[in-house]
Amino acid sequence: MDLRGKVVVITGAAGGIGAAMARRFADAGVTGLVLADLDGTGVEDLAQSINRGLTRAVTCDVTDPAQVAALVDAAHETFGPVDLFCSNAGITTGTGLDTTDETWDRAWSINVHAHVAAARAVLPSMLDRGAGYLLQTCSAAGLLTAVGDAPYAVTKHAAVAFAEWLSMTYGDRGIRVSALCPQGVRTPMLDTGLARGHAGAHITAAAGEILTPEQVADAVVDGLAAERFLILPHPEVATYQQRKAEDPDRWLSSMRKLITRVASGA
Length: 266
Description:
By secondary structure, the protein is an alpha/beta fold. It is built from ten helices and seven strands. The N and C termini lie far apart (45 Å).
């Protein structure tokens, strides 16, 4: 995808990867950016900092399908048909078997069902035109795992699976799909996990280079240009994924040893 002249919607846009993508896409020459977040003030500030004529800020709770549908309507009204929908909002929990049902439900709502709501809202017009692109932020956890965070590991796997389903179902009808799967990124999500002592955050921080959101946004632009299904800002994730597929028992054993090492402070 060539971003020049395109209309783009980004959820979870008030900070982190979402905000970095917004700035990078503006530099790439999009003609319309609809920036959505539950943090209405934050996303409005971002829109104004980029270019008020190029952007529209929308307060949106992605767990509410009606609000997601209204978000797509707002994009159509302001800039025209949506060319690229970036379903980027997500949450971590830092919990395991002690996770409450309410937390599980929220993780499913944001990390999975929001992608479904976005597809339902934006695909009809894309299919009518025979062209469109869905970018879903899924995390390396969707290909590997998330130590110490059962809801995140499970829902991100589901997000990748849904992206795969969309691609194989609609790819021959002009719809392109990419799953963005970074490892450690310097965002409030990771910083909060580190501050709270979550094992998964510490393992992520120790597993490889911590990228900036801007580096991830650059990888996204490259991935969209090549129309790659998996966009991996950390290339080593592909190697880890291959090892996991080739020998799951060995991979699980290595993960157990890693958890033990981190727990002991070694």
